Amino acid sequence: MNHQTPVFIITGGQGQCKTTFLHLVLGLIVGLNVRVRGVIAPGHVRDGRRSGFTLVDLATGEHEELCSIDPDPRCEAHGRFYFQPVGLAFGRRALAPPDPRGTDLMVIDEVGRFELQGVVWADQLDRLTAHPHPPMIWTVRRRLLDTVVERWNITNPVVVDVGTASAMATADAVMDAVWAWREAQPFSPITAAPVPGDRVAPPALFADAAAGAPRSTPVILRRCYGPEG
Fold first, then answer.
1. Where does the record place a coiled coil (predicted)?
2. Which of 47, 83, 116, 224 could bridge across to 229 with cysteines, CB 3.0–4.6 Å?
């Protein structure tokens, strides 16, 4: 199964909205009872330059600060960013190898130069790709794409370039992969799922907050992508 289950790689140049494209794709499948695990990392900008990232656990909707450019001796320094120990631990828990009976899709935003250097999410990626896994979506900067595919020996990559790709078509392809994964499992899939062959219907993107979330929290952080979100 590991050699047949696709890894969708959303790619583009720096600042080309890979995370935004991923958010749109997830928004298109969230109403289809897809059990999503993993992380999405919305970025922050200060004075026209990337200043840090927040990490969102897609299974729970919880979030933690991951890193910033502000020096902090308590943090791990990688490049110009200082990574919060709490944020790293939070992400590593979210990226633990999933139970295939409870996961249809695994998301990692993003796989980049730090992982290629063996830090941040590198160990989690090694574990995820070493065992049978559900379909996955990674975001990867275009110039690192070939290196990432080779490093993790991705035998069935589906490359989605944000410059030319359609979020609707990508969501449709992801759902096809999810259905193939479910049908290949020895246990029954979750109930109340769409009929195989149904096309993706776009819900209202950037919908209201999950119940109980602070209203001051950005919508992208309030959104929970699990089947109950």
1. none
2. 224
Q: Note the pLDDT tens digit of each residue in 1-40.
A: 445 799 999 999 877 899 999 999 999 997 788 999 999 9
Residue written as token pair 């996961």: 103
Digit-coded pLDDT (tens) for 109-126: 999 999 999 999 999 999
Has residue 108 been placed in a domain? yes
pTM of the model: 0.82
Strand 157-161 versus strand 49-57 pairing type = unpaired
CATH number at residue 200: 3.40.50
d(CA 174, CA 205): 17
